[in-house]
Amino acid sequence: MEKYTHSGRTRFSPTPLMVGMALLWPMAFAVAQTAAPADAVAAPQAGVLQAVTVTAERRAENVKDVPSSISTISGEKFDVLNTGGMDIRMLSGRVPSLNIESSFGRAFPRFYIRGYGNTDFRSNASQPVSLIYDDIVQENPILKGFPVFDVDRIEVLAGPQGTLFGRNTPAGVVKIDSVKPSKTTDGYFNASYGSYGTAALETAFNLPLSGEWNARISAQIQHRDNWVKNDKGPTKDLEGYDDRAVRLQAAYDGGGTFSGLFNVHGRDLNGSARLFRANIIKKGSNELVDDFDPSRIQTDGINKQTLTNSGANAKLKWTLPDFNVYSITGYETVNAYSRGDIDGGYGAAFLPTGGGPGLIPFPSESAAGVRDHQQVTQEIRLESKGKGPMTWQGGVYLFKEKLGFDSYTYSTLANNAQSGAVLKSDQTNDTYAAFGGLTYAVSDTLKLRGGVRYTQDKKTLETQPLPAGDPNATNTTNGLGSSTDNSQVSWDLGATYKLDKDSNIFGRIATGFRGASIQPAGPFGPLNKADPETTISYEVGYKADLLDKRARTSISIFHYDVKDQQLTAVGGSSNAVRLVNAKNVSGDGVEFNLDAYVTPNFLVTFGGSYNNTAINDPTLAVGVCAQCTVLNPKNAAGLALINGNALPNAPKWIANVTARYGIPAANGGEYFIYTDWAYRSETNLFLYQSAEFTAPPLLEGGLRLGYNWGNGKYEAAIFGRNITNQVRVTGAIDFNNLTGFINDPRTYGVQFKMSL
């Protein structure tokens, strides 16, 4: 029996969180009226870019001084991208070399930096891109989907970051820092409503509690009505969601040796799982079929998705005479269930009534669930305080995860009843690491950096055997359990050379490591493992402030090699999913950023990247689709030889542009127009190449028109997302037919924001 529950239709109704937020705001205004005024802060100079401070090296530094490729998103740009009920996938393509996709919708995002990622969709999958949220790694892919709101800054660190960050960073890091409590009394209220009943409410309030304690509460609620009609199945209305999240922080600083920051947070998601749509791709091409209608579907399976996530962390600091000591403790847990119609259609070809749309060889309806999960992390780090030419930091790191995940199958032709027993798997993962880093200023113009990390990673996986006679017999060829034990030393070396007061050049060599992975046994394949992968990366670049800080630019050129990269092979003809290692994968590319004030009221930003990835393994062969046009040569067993193929979900070209023009008005007001565009070129969806499973180029744009007044305290705007209404296949299911899923539809609406 299922232990997960889900309401049949998405509803927008008051919740305790919404009521609490509504009650909080009158109190917030009352406190704001009586609070002592904050110290005056100098207003930014019109037409001049402010310095960007990042913590990519675990210290606050000007981005120009860090010897690696870093892109940031913050402020108004983030607010615009997050408009209209968006989730973390809205970051995709918004900085160079970053791609994000998901076959689970708003849950389980998969990240790729410089083309390097992992398409694995199982609940115990690991990724080579690490997501760090408020200094805590979000290891399980479901944790990576936690809503992004009340954010101070997002940093995307490209290339291996295996020295100073704790888990699986050979491709890079996406680092999210929320706004922290402060001694000022402030806050904001941001509400929007748009097409498909899309409603979003985000609010935050900062409250000084005493001379030593400050608190901040922030929350986000997002809702969309079901907008896709199902002509065949029991779940008639689809693609709606209710997604709620809250964060409470408390900061202590008594002005002495000790200070601390404490964080508790939670999320509740209830909505549709990803909609798989059968045979929506034209045979022999990657175009949608002529009669495709995004608002309709024909499936006979049940669709639902639920997710709850909660966590807490504590960042403690002791300020000693010669160095600082940090203790960072984190706890995360998640429970999830996602059920969908995998074949994407109704009926089956062998039935008297047939099936559709198109060919449905046999029905498949399944679900995946996370029944038990706990992640505990602990870091102790020491950081020097010296003013001399040398600074250092070092510490130890512990990661422990317990994961219980299940697989369900259902009989679509027997009223969607569960067929057979639940396939239950349990995995534990323990990681221990010691790390250190050193920075040395050789002169006023040359600064060297280096770091090293030793990591030991252990995994154990066990799957419970299904009872004899179960219709979904498990393949026990390789047994039902296995374990791994890997260790590795990672290191990096970097240098920054100051050309003048406004420009630097840099170089960096870095290595990365990801421990071995285990795939549980199932009906379509035996238990199998992938060996650990290691990475080495080389890059050089240039960063500069230009035109008296009216413009800023950065450019980097890089090359990397991955030894034994873990890949997920999916073959539609056998429905098998297996882990494989590629002997070598290489990547080359260029990344570029430019921010510039054309006039004091006209700001433009541009980012772009070129990534050329290649699998270099002459003998590596994988299963192929049953109905598509395979473009790779095949071996004697009918498997595709993928040597020379680009990595999946690794577009060669990514580009993004934003432009904001403001027109000053009376009484401190301003009319403004803001537009943003993101482009990615076509990309392979699987390891083999085929005409159909190559996602076509995608260009999505946004537009925002508004007016702010009261020196920016109030703002009203109209907005649109995906304003050209491009509809493209963005992913596929390799399941005996041409099944795919698509990007979000065009939305538009109104928004109001108020600040204290």
Descriptive account of the structure:
By secondary structure, the protein is mainly β. A hairpin with an 8-residue loop joins strand 4 (98-101) and strand 5 (110-113). The protein is globular and about 75 Å long. 48% of the residues are buried. Mean pLDDT is 90; it is low at 1-43.
Write out key terms for the chains shown.
756 residues; five-stranded mixed beta sheet; 2 helices; 45 strands; disordered N terminus
Entry summary:
With 756 residues, this protein is mainly beta. The chain has two helices and 45 strands.
Count of alpha and pi helical runs: 2
Q: Whole-number radius of gyration?
A: 26 Å
The total count of strands amounts to 45
Major sheet size, sense and barrel closure: 22 strands, antiparallel, barrel
Residue windows where pLDDT falls under 50 for at least 5 positions: 1-43
The fraction of residues in strands falls at over 45%
Q: What proportion of the residues is helical, as a percent range? A: under 10%
The chain-level mean pLDDT equals 90
Which secondary structure elements does this structure contain, and how are they paired or packed?
Blueprint lengths: L15 H19 L18 E2 L6 E2 L7 E4 L1 H7 L16 E4 L8 E4 L15 E5 L2 E2 L13 E8 L13 E7 L7 E9 L3 E11 L4 E12 L3 E3 L6 E2 L2 E13 L4 E14 L24 E2 L6 E16 L3 E19 L4 E2 L7 E2 L8 E20 L5 E22 L5 E2 L4 E19 L4 E18 L17 E20 L2 E12 L2 E3 L8 E3 L2 E14 L4 E21 L4 E24 L2 E15 L4 E2 L17 E2 L11 E12 L5 E11 L2 E2 L9 E2 L2 E12 L4 E8 L7 E6 L3 E5 L4 E9 L1
